[in-house]
Amino acid sequence: MTDSTVAEARTRVARTSGTVRVVGAGLLGSSIGHALRALGVDVALADASPSQLRLAIDYGAGRAEEPGDAPALVVVATPPDVVADVIERELRAHPDAVVTDVASVKLAPFEELRARGVDLTHYIGSHPLAGRERGGAIAARADIFIGRPWVVCRDELTPASDLALVEGLALDLGAMPIEMTPAEHDRSVALVSHVPQLVASLLAGRFVDAPEDALSLAGQGVRDTTRIAASAPELWVQILDANAVPVVDVLDRLAIDLRDVADALRAPEEPGSRRTVADAIRRGNDGVARLPGKHGQRRQFESLVVMVDDTAGQLGRLFGDLGALEVNVEDLRLEHSPGAQFGLAEISVVPSALRRAEQGLEERGWKIASLPS
């Protein structure tokens, strides 16, 4: 979090008050701690690993738990395979607190707790759709929740005041609360998170035995589709195991699509083969067009690619020139080619600004490249 972001956070009045107990000082738990502390909220951290806890405290995510703590809100940020146990323990230890968790699977722990007969009146499952490729307290950032969806799973017994507490936490962290049932959540993340992780990992796995010459041709497209393949296997085994049924459903349908395209390419001269391939690409066009754009709106942007010298200050100069042209950068991707002394900055702008950006940057000496394939 930058100094200016911290200063801005401290000028806002937090909805969350009192002590917030965060159990689990990894990426999400520590990030929640950093964001709340920037708002002046007292954060008490707990973790099964003493070294992880000390590291999170050293980085400023919160303080160590104390015997007299009386939290109004408990956030469980532990691995999926122990989350039900920790939720049950926290509900019993803090009967006056609202307990939420940020696990990426919601139905399995909820059903497990209900089967144990645990009183779930003051439990609300939640899940921020945020993260990074790296984990642990050292990778935590206060701003990873900003603009991201935060699913809140209430039921008919959830007190309105408890719901307000959890949704207030999400809003304080800059996230957008969305109410879903646990089953709706798990089906949704299977499609938009869990299967994409598997697809990225399987594709990246093809690189292990690939010739170096082939990998030297890798551009932004393959980097985009495999970026999340660097995720931790230990965590994903737990996530996928807990959400296996919805994931398998999506994988089975995806396997049918892959088989149809593969069959078409085996016999490209057969009637209908080219249409099968074209329809697959076109359906992908239609699907990606439905993804929410900037600020949650389904907006389409145009892109231009600018060659940027690999020297200090060049990216700042580019942004300065775009600002002078009154062109807002909606999104940015950077790519460096091996051995090259320049990078490619792919900049997304609203369609009405594209021509102005191209002409203005060229007049200022920038070289506009073609879009990467």
UniProtKB/TrEMBL annotation:
Domain Prephenate/arogenate dehydrogenase: 18-295
Gene3D superfamilies: 6-phosphogluconate dehydrogenase C-terminal like domain (1.10.3660.10), NAD(P)-binding Rossmann-like Domain (3.40.50.720)
Pfam families in the record: PDH_C (PF20463), PDH_N (PF02153)
Keyword list, A-Z: Oxidoreductase
GO molecular function: prephenate dehydrogenase (NAD+) activity
InterPro entries linked: 6-PGluconate_DH-like_C_sf, NAD(P)-bd_dom_sf, PDH_C, PDH_N, Preph/Arog_dehydrog, Prephen_DH
Keyword Oxidoreductase in annotation: yes
Enzyme class: oxidoreductase
EC number annotated for this UniProt entry: 1.3.1.12
Domain of life from the UniProt record: Bacteria
Family membership: Belongs to the prephenate/arogenate dehydrogenase family.
Descriptive protein name: Prephenate dehydrogenase
Species of the source: Microbacterium flavum
